[in-house]
Design brief:
With 337 residues, the protein is of the alpha/beta class. 41% of the residues lie in helices and 18% in strands. The protein contains ten helices and nine strands. Strands 1, 2, 3, 4, 5, 6, 7, 8 and 9 form a nine-stranded mixed β-sheet that branches. Helix 9 runs antiparallel to helix 10. 47% of the residues are buried. The model has no long low-confidence stretch (mean pLDDT 90).
């Protein structure tokens, strides 16, 4: 892959993350392999749109634009894809910063023409300064981070994780964009799995496609204090169950739950035993971690059952549109900087 052929999309929605957004953009601009452009897609927030447009009006390579679709992360990403020019589109969370070689490691993965997506490793930055003693590493996906149980190195996977991921542009030509009606929507229930659904759809459209995670492509993701609490842990686990039910309805339970079965039968039992062992050795948090794993599994399962019943009654509530159909306001009409 040639240099400067990667567009970076950062979806934003609230002024509460102003400093985080600026830090995310700065980390992209400091990459050892420069990005072709950085696109900030603002999710139906006029004040934030105008403030960011003013902040980056004179900054070369940074563009600010409004989400051209319905409210939510998926439509924001689709807007960024449609407006971007790179042969690869990378996605970075608005409350994360990328290490200097983040894009370089992504680019290395695309030397193989079969590779359609490359993800990376997301490390938590806890607001309290340290991981809560009860919080199991096996559940770091709850806070949007890489969880214990994923294989190390550069490995082939079913799906990448959306806050630290990249795709060839041709992947969206083959499979369409991110599905709307699934995934995050501002401050509503913390749903997810939109990248899982896209990746499964992609490999069905392109059976020869290879999807990778390279754990050298590192970002650091801020975990606010509210997400260090057990209440959020349960809410997010339940929402994951709801999301998985939608994905399973779309692509079938066999493929939609393939990785989750391995995770539940191999990774989590080991985590419970490790927690109980630590408790027996009087190590801090051991019993809490074991209990949290059990509670997380049961809560996610309850969400899956509820989501499955809801999906059967009302049908799938998400839709996929070709990215080419997304109408983005041109740069010279005031929506971008």
């Amino acid at each position: 892959m040639s240099t400067r052929d990667i567009s970076v999309v950062i979806c934003v929605y609230t002024e509460d993350r102003w400093e985080d957004i600026l830090a995310a953009v700065s980390s992209v601009r400091a990459q050892s392999l420069p990005a072709l452009e950085t696109l900030l897609v603002v999710d139906h927030n006029t004040v934030l749109l105008e403030r960011l447009a003013g902040e980056y009006r004179k900054t070369e390579g940074v563009r600010v634009l409004a989400n051209a679709g319905p409210r939510g992360l998926s439509a924001g990403r689709n807007t960024g894809i449609a407006a971007s020019h790179g042969g690869v589109i990378a996605f970075l969370d608005d409350d994360a910063v990328a290490e200097r070689d983040w894009l370089r490691h992504f680019a290395e993965g695309y030397t193989d023409p079969r590779v359609m997506a490359v993800g990376g490793r997301t490390m938590p930055v806890w607001a309290s300064g340290r991981r809560p003693a009860w919080f199991p590493e096996e559940f770091d996906w709850v806070v949007g981070c890489t969880y214990k149980g994923l294989p190390p190195g550069r490995v082939r996977v079913r799906n990448v994780l959306g806050g630290n991921a990249s795709f060839r542009r041709t992947a969206f030509d083959a499979a369409g964009g991110f599905a709307t009606g699934i995934g995050r929507d501002g401050d509503r229930r913390p749903l997810g799995c939109e990248e899982t659904e896209l990746c499964i759809r992609l490999t069905r459209s392109r059976p020869d496609a290879v999807l990778l995670i390279d754990d050298r492509a590192v970002i650091h993701h801020r975990v606010p204090a509210v997400r260090e609490r057990f209440g959020y842990f349960r809410t997010r686990a339940y929402a994951e169950g709801l999301s998985k039910a939608l994905v399973a309805r779309s692509v079938g339970a066999g493929k939609g739950l393939e990785s989750e079965r391995r995770y539940s039968t191999r990774v989590l039992p080991v985590g419970v035993l490790r927690g109980l062992r630590d408790a027996a050795l009087a190590r801090p948090g051991g019993a809490g971690r074991a209990g949290a794993i059990v509670a997380g599994v049961l809560t996610a399962a309850a969400g899956y059952v509820a989501g499955s019943v809801r999906a059967r009654r009302s049908g799938a509530v998400f839709s996929v549109v070709p990215v080419a159909a997304v109408e983005v306001v041109p740069d010279d009409e005031g929506a971008t900087a």
